[in-house]
Amino acid sequence: MEPQRAPTRAAAMLRRVVEISKRLVRGLKNLAIAAAVCVTGAWLVWLVDTPVEGTEGWIERIIALAVLLSPSAVLLFFVSGLRELASLPERVRTIPAGVRTEMASRPRSEARGALGLVAAFFRLARLVWGSREVLSPYAAVSIALRPAILLAALAASAAALVVMLASLIAIVIMSVA
Predict the structure, then answer these.
(1) 160 and 72 Cβ atoms separated by less than 8 Å
(2) 52 backbone dihedrals φ, ψ, rounded to 5°
(3) Residue 130's pLDDT band (boundaries 50, 70, 90)?
(4) Where does the chain show beta strands of DSSP type E?
(5) 73: which residues sit within 8 A by CB, 6+ positions away?
(6) Residues contacting 116, CB < 8 A, separation 6+
(7) Is 157 in contact with 28 (CB distance < 8 Å)?
(8) Lowest mean pLDDT among 41-45, 71-75, 144-148
(9) pTM for the predicted model, two decimal places
(10) DSSP per-residue codes, 122-140
(11) In Å, what is the CA distance from 79 to each residue of 3, 5, 163, 166?
């Protein structure tokens, strides 16, 4: 692969990831909200159906609600990461071209040996320190696309579906009884 084509290919891949994440955001957000509404509805029906006695009963019910709402919370956190990924500005997506231009405009040091190496190290450190602000949006990409986060979002999606269906069934059973 040619060195000049690598940044272009990376920018194209990032654009594809952003497009896919935009499509995924809507569905996951709707799933998380629907699951949270169903769980909260079932919890409220449970409260009406069997009144709480004492503080311990309230603590148990609040803990149960928190546990049942956790898949929705995980999905909403994942959706917020995907939204951040999708909102990367165009200038950041095409940063490799800007970095190439910046590096080409920098004067090269002619010093050789240990002194040249130390000088190059400090120039690199200054460049990295100065570009932290520009490169910080890429942190969202690395966090949102880690395998563990993707697996957690997949597990949370499955759990949200199960919790939503179980909540609807519980509402029907408690309403009939």
Answers:
(1) yes
(2) -85, 135
(3) low
(4) none
(5) 32
(6) 109, 110
(7) yes
(8) 144-148
(9) 0.63
(10) HHHHHHHHHHHHHHTTHHH
(11) 34, 31, 19, 23
